[in-house]
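Hey, quick one: can you model this chain's 3D structure?
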Amino acid sequence: MQEFGRRAAIKSKGEFEADKATLAQTKIFDEIRTVMQKAKMYLKTSVDTVGTKAELEQIKKDFMLAGDGVFTNKGTAQTFRNLTATSKIINELLNKAKVRKTGLDLRQQELNNFRYRLDSLSSVPALFKFPTDSLELMGYLKKISVVAYEIAPIDTALKQASGNIQTLLNQVNLEVSSLQVSLDEIDIYQRKMAYNAFGRDFGNIWEPAGFYRPFDEILNFSKIKGLLTLGFYSENNSGKLLILFLLIAISFIYLRSLKRIYTSRELLKADFEGQLVLRYPLASAILLVLSLFQFIFISPPFILSVLLWLISCICLTIIFKGYISKYWLRVWGIMVLFFILAAADNLILQASRTERWFILIAAVIGVVSGLIILLQKKQQELREKWIMYSIGFMVLLEVFAVFANIFGRYNLSKTLFIGGYLNVVIAILFLWVVRFINEGLLLAFDVYTVQDKKLFYLNFERVGKKAPLLLYVLLVFGWLILMGRNFPAFEYLAKPLGNFFSQDRTIGNYTFSINGLVLFVAIMAISVLVSKIVSFFASDEHLAADKDSKQKKRGLGSWILLVRIFILSIGLFLAIAAAGIPMDRITIVLGALGVGIGFGLQTLVNNLVSGLIIAFEKPVNVGDIVDVDGQGGTMKSIGFRSSVISTWDGADVVMPNGDLLNSHLVNWSLAGNRKRVAIVLGIAYNSDLEKCRRIIVEVLDAEQRINKNPGPVVQYEQFGASTIDLKIYFWAKHIREAYAIRSDLIVAISEAFNANNISIPFPRQDVHLFYPNKEGEEPQTE
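Sure thing. Here's the predicted structure for all 782 residues.
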């Protein structure tokens, strides 16, 4: 029996192990089939091999074009503009190649993952535990054969696809490496040029040239490179270009609306003195937006900047025509012409003797023209006196450009040449931009007292009459940036500043950068500003409606508080994420706030919570007519801690939200701003009461400012001492008109009674005098 029990135990254990192996094998087979199915589906979504090869070929072609004048046909010396344009093109090509490389890497990784999972599942030890029974063994071997038969083609397909991807990836990696090496080489050239800004590039202008290339070839490849950089940059910044067009449209709507107001009120002057911004609203809008918002384009190609400046110059010329004197209009035209010539020359990417002579002649002409303009002494005709300083600076730069060109400092000469004329054009544009902003604000402040949705309910009384000083500072800073971009050393001077702001710093366990802190403050400031603008515009909409005595549809009302909280919350989270502040630090701050609330901030928290209750329950809304503890007026705003009520006396009462909820709040607007009014009067005893009622009803029916449903009521109250008293009840359509209606009705009823000989008697008393007589006589009265 013991032997039988031992054999039975061994047999049971073997059967258990066999069942366990069968379950494991079934699970593995299912996983293998699942992986094979996923691999089949993934292989169907093939990579765009043809597109990748075509783009790779285009990258190689564009790289050959970009390298002209830098890696091929180098000439005697490199030029700053050619290096810059080539660097921008190669950067774009490198980004495109890296995008393709990332996609191929992911594809290769997924293919390898499928192969690895199939190989790992195929080598699980549980698959090699064969059944002891011959029949079961035969069935299991057939099952393995079927699975192996199914795996083989998929594995082959995965290997083939992986090999194809690897071949393509090798080509892409080679191109990426080549582009990166080229960028490093260009960086070395640019560094040398920046450190040797005043060094000699060529021989003196009268010496023979060391390298010759036909000028038409230089123009051709310069055009190709310019269009290539413009195309790449426009493609990558299409969103910013769209924003620019939207800003132009919005500015045009503002200026056109303002001009229509002046036209309707016959306030436009014939010479547009002080109103020049309104002369051509579209041209003014384009000029303002392009001048102010061109800085949203980070490191744009020169050809794009030239297009923006030329459009601005055309708009300013249209505005100037017929406004400034003919002499200064000709001067402006000459400056724009010189700028066009200099900009066109700056688009030429490789040096040539023809170009050097052109720069020399154009610079000499610019010096002579500038001196003539300065010596004419017609500054009194100038609208902006600072223009003379920019012309003088131009003369100085062009003089240096002439000498630098003569003595072989080609890159320095070309930089000074374009900088001189660019300085004048940019200075004039920016000066008139500030003037137009001041004019626009002053004109809007003078005439725009009632807000209009065309101007987005903007209150110019709050905005002010003059452009802020910060705008002047920013424009001067922008002028320096636009001038500095033309110098090779600018980027290398700007890099240390950028590194200073982006460098990580550590205080304790917290790591931060100045960029992160600035970004945090900027996002929070924008959030606060946006929330205030939303609240201010919404409340002003109701105030404007009250001024016009029009019942407008309510806006966001008390929901504004929730909108402000939402905006601030989103801004706070974005600022924290942008600055990289750890959440555990936020927990510490919240804990400290909890302690502060427990000790001394109960009142503040009560007011904040009351503000939330008002926002959700809406017992009062912005623009409602309310009465709180005898303070009647209009609800002007509902803030986080307190609310503002504009009283009928003209004062603004600031009331904490907690007090507002705890007070006996009367909200007239909840019932439609109507109010019941009563008039008490008395008529003589001998009057015809029905006639009196009919006359009063006729007077009430003629009044359009009272509700007809519920209609007015005339009730006789009592027999008075000298009159029969009656009361008139009526509903004023708007509470603001209630007392004016009652006054007008009293006048109208009095006139109607007088016309119908109905008297309203004044109180009368009879006085009886009693004289007591002597004893035995009758008393006398009178």
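One thing worth noting: Residues 449-465, 539-557 have pLDDT under 50 and may be disordered.
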